[in-house]
Amino acid sequence: MAGAERGGGRPAEQEPVVSLVDVLEEDEELENEACAVLGGSDSEKCSYSQGSVKRQALYACSTCTPEGEEPAGICLACSYECHGSHKLFELYTKRNFRCDCGNSKFKNLECKLLPEKGKLNSGNKYNDNFFGLYCICKRPYPDPEDEIPDEMIQCVVCEDWFHGRHLGAIPPESGDFQEMVCQACMKRCSFLWAYAAQLAVPTVTKIITAEDDGVLNVDGTEDQKVIKAENGTNNHESIPEESILEKGKVIREENKTEQVDEPSTSSGSESDLQTVSMNEHQNTESHSVCKLQDLKTKKYVKQDTATYWPHNWRNKLCTCSDCMKMYADLEILFLTDEYDTVLAYENKGKSDQGTDRRDPLMDTLNSMNRVQQVELICEYNDLKTELKDYLRRFADEGTVVKREDIQQFFEEFQSRKRRRLDGMQYYCS
Questions:
Q1: Is 333 exposed, middle or buried (0-12, 13-18, 19+ CB in 10 A)?
Q2: What's the rounded Cα separation, in Å, for the pair 185 and 238?
Q3: Ranges of Basic and acidic residues compositional bias (predicted)?
Q4: Which of 99, 180, 212, 428 could form a disulfide linkage to 48, CB 3.0–4.6 angstroms apart?
């Protein structure tokens, strides 16, 4: 009876109620996340034969290539077949990479899927991520010694991962931006500051509040004051000053930024341009006009911070011949490729997995009466709980779950289920 009490006068503890719709939605979300990261990668065939894959899920094996050895990356299929019992670092996705498994960097391992491989992949690029270290602090993730909850964000240029507090500018809400360029890459690709004035998502770089009379430590090394991000000209949107003053004090630190007012490199003054004949004007328009040179005629600010960019910001980059040469020299031509983004990769994975896919659980559910539906929920929850506990062991040990491990789990699960059913007593009323 609802509301009944047990001994001691305490209300009966109610079991948490979870609807099957909630369960299915949660599983669908997890499945979509898996498809997003792995959907574009083959779990059975080594990607080496495809050459430098535009973007794929990658792993590094600390068992085969520990710190001190040469860095190496392996594809999804090789992480299963060749390194199943090894300790792996998940690298998420990397661009233009060819699987290293079994090449000269692996002293005592031959690739089981494609033994015939070249000694080295000269086109591959590596960083500290391949040894499980991230950010400017060169710490592992998750970091057992770091008690500060912080989001890790990947730089779209160098593809390293950074703590939000180590980027020099407090990240906007995750839904407000699509990509991030770290401080080092902004310094190397300084032309991006001219675009940032018009396109980047506004940020507040440093904040100190009056209430705690303390510090929100942005870079982890020193106490910070407040400065308002001035990423552009007068029409640049920023966080309203009044809302910041309600919480603390805004202090401008003009010496921390470098205001740039570069003249256009195009020849001729404004008056000269006004006297150009109609034919000459049409000929000029027929050639690609450099957007960057136009932006450089406006004031913008260079700062020692990361920048955050909205969806489709890359479409606004100039693709004239001079700019394309500059991108090639800086090795960032990928910024002009709309399919290079992680979002495009994730959407492809979801699309490939979702094609002609039916949900057998929903089909079965629709054919059941209510009693059968409740029984299915109970069975499903039991399976989910036991599978979660089983997989946690692999996560704690840092090993990959192989096909035979899953088969063993279900065999043992069915055996336990039969023993439970055999021990049940049925009564008629």
A1: middle
A2: 23
A3: 244-259
A4: 99
Regarding whether 158 and 305 lie in a shared domain, the answer is: yes
Kindly state whether residue 67 falls inside one of the protein's structural domains. Answer: yes
Domain containing 163: what range?
152-262+289-317
Angle subtended at Cα 92 by Cα 88 and Cα 96, rounded to the nearest 5 degrees: 105
Classify 29 as helix, strand or coil: helix
Tell me how crowded residue 399 is: count the other CB atoms within 10 A of its CB: 17
Residue pointed to by tokens 């809400």: 173
Bond into 11 cis (ω within 30): no
Instruction: Indicate if the pLDDT at residue 232 is higher than 60.
Output: no
With left for phi above 0 and alpha for psi between -120 and 50, is residue 216 left, alpha or beta?
beta
Contact 150, 289 (CB under 8 A): no
Residue type, 406: I
Residue with tokens 């040179």: 293
Query: Residue 153's beta-bridge partner residues?
Result: 162
Structure confidence by residue, pLDDT tens digits, 350-369:
776 655 455 566 666 667 77
User: Sign of dihedral through CA atoms 403, 405, 407, 409?
Assistant: negative
The rounded distance, in Å, linking the Cα atoms of 266 and 356 is 54
Name the pTM for this structure. Answer: 0.63
